[in-house]
Amino acid sequence: MDATFWAFVGLVLFLAAMAWIKIPAKIGKSLDDRADAIRKELDEARKLREEAQSLLSEYQRKRHEAEGEAEAIIAEATHEAERLTVETNQALEDMIARRSKAAEDKIAQAETQAIAEVRASAADIATAAAEQILTAKVKDKVADDILSKSIAQVKEKLN
């Protein structure tokens, strides 16, 4: 008997002991358990992926909605700014027109007042001149009456 024979006998005894202890069944059960655990992990990963995909699509939808709202807000703000610009320009034009009208009214009033002052001054000068002329040419009581009436008439007509 040589060493090869004893190695063969040892191998047979080892395999018989493994079969008797049911090692192949335990290895198979262990592999089955491992396959089940991997299957569960894959199912869990698939569920997580689906949830992540769902969250991603929801966030993308919300982002699109937010972008739409932002664009609407920007458009509204632009429209409001344009409207306010038009209103402000119109108000400025109205204010300029009112101030121009007020300035023209003041100028017209000043002209009217200046004309009235010139007329009054002219009337006073004419009255004084008429008084001097009449006092130099007409004398006595008749002259005084005529002079008084004339002065009164000139004052009434000039004012």
Automatic annotation (TrEMBL):
Secretion signal span: none
Topology in the lipid bilayer: Single-pass membrane protein
InterPro entries linked: ATP_synth_b/b'su_bac/chlpt, ATP_synthase_B_chain
Keyword vocabulary terms for this entry: ATP synthesis, Cell membrane, CF(0), Coiled coil, Hydrogen ion transport, Ion transport, Membrane, Transmembrane, Transmembrane helix, Transport
PANTHER family per UniProt: ATP SYNTHASE SUBUNIT B, ATP SYNTHASE SUBUNIT B', CHLOROPLASTIC
NCBIfam families: PRK09173.1 (NF006611)
Assembly and oligomerization: F-type ATPases have 2 components, F(1) - the catalytic core - and F(0) - the membrane proton channel. F(1) has five subunits: alpha(3), beta(3), gamma(1), delta(1), epsilon(1). F(0) has three main subunits: a(1), b(2) and c(10-14). The alpha and beta chains form an alternating ring which encloses part of the gamma chain. F(1) is attached to F(0) by a central stalk formed by the gamma and epsilon chains, while a peripheral stalk is formed by the delta and b chains.
HAMAP family in the cross-refs: ATP_synth_b_bprime (MF_01398)
Name this protein carries in UniProt: ATP synthase subunit b
Organism, scientific name: Roseibium algae
